[in-house]
Design goal:
Length: 259
């Protein structure tokens, strides 16, 4: 598979005047970041050569491309996003070289992405979500933009779509005691404001999906409500916490009995 062409397209296509990977909030080169993510996922959970992967908030496919290279011909991947041009980009560049890697659009308004909602002819709508089908789901830098009602909807959807032994690799801003101790008045993220649902904290009250954090208790509540339990938690460096392998908190979730 010639992924160099896809990485170059991510750098060169500028649908809204800047490289497409900028739409997902990334400021670094997508290629090393994509491989770093894939390596980290594979260090936390085994992925079979014929794995079925569901990626909610797939963006421009930064993580899909490494798995398209690494997994066998029977592997499949469904990437879902709410921004048409991102789904269209993946459909134009990844699916033609890896037909079992499919991408679909979820029609859902989000004020933070409202400026990027122009239609894309290759962004096909998600019509059907298979049930108990996927071995692994991904939610990378997704819950860091979702208030509790939307987060709960995704966690429930993924619980239904994954197999009983399925795992969910997801990143969050977890506002636990250590994070709070490290946050300084000059820190990039302070999370001082309650979210509209009062079940999370947001950075900007005027743009509530810009960045969302959950206290440990709030996170525990949404996970229990949706039938997930934490298997592994790698704390993130976002608060200034030292010795972290990742910027956001990285969680590997497994199924639990719903509360
Ligand atoms: C910060 S970006 C991360 C993209 C990708 N996971 C990556 O790491 O490159 C978050 C993505 O989630 C998408 N998104 C936000 N809410 C969503 C939802 N409810 N369902 C699916 N995608 C969503 C956004 O359009 C955006 O592409």
């Amino acid at each position: 598979m010639n992924s160099a062409r896809i990485w170059n397209a991510m750098r060169e296509e500028r649908p809204y005047g800047f490289p497409i990977y900028g739409l997902v909030g990334a400021d670094g080169d997508p290629e090393p970041e994509g491989y770093r993510n894939a390596d980290r996922i594979q260090s936390l959970t085994e992925i079979a050569d014929d794995a079925r992967i569901l990626d909610i908030g797939c963006g421009c496919g930064r993580v899909a491309v490494p798995f398209a290279e690494r997994l066998g011909p029977k592997a499949s991947y469904l990437g879902i996003d709410i921004v048409p041009v991102l789904v269209g980009f993946c459909a134009r560049h990844i699916t033609p070289v890896r037909p079992t890697f499919q991408f679909r659009l979820r029609a859902q308004p989000n004020p933070h992405y409202a400026q990027f909602m122009q239609d894309d002819p290759d962004a096909r709508l998600l019509e059907h979500m298979p049930q108990e089908h996927y071995d692994l789901a991904l939610g990378i830098s997704l819950f860091t933009h979702l208030d509790a009602p939307d987060a709960v909807a995704v966690l429930r959807e993924v619980a239904a779509a994954t197999r009983p032994d399925g795992k969910f690799y997801a990143t969050f801003f977890v506002l636990d005691e250590v994070a709070r101790e490290h946050i300084q008045p000059t820190s990039r993220f302070q999370f001082k404001h309650a979210s509209p649902s009062y079940r999370a904290f947001v950075e900007r009250p005027e743009d509530t999906s810009f960045a969302v954090a959950y206290t440990a208790e709030q996170l525990d509540a949404i996970l229990r409500e949706t039938g997930w339990a934490v298997e592994t938690h790698l704390p993130g460096a976002w608060s200034g916490r030292q010795g972290c392998r990742t910027y956001q908190d990285t969680l590997l979730l497994k199924k639990a009995n719903p509360a």
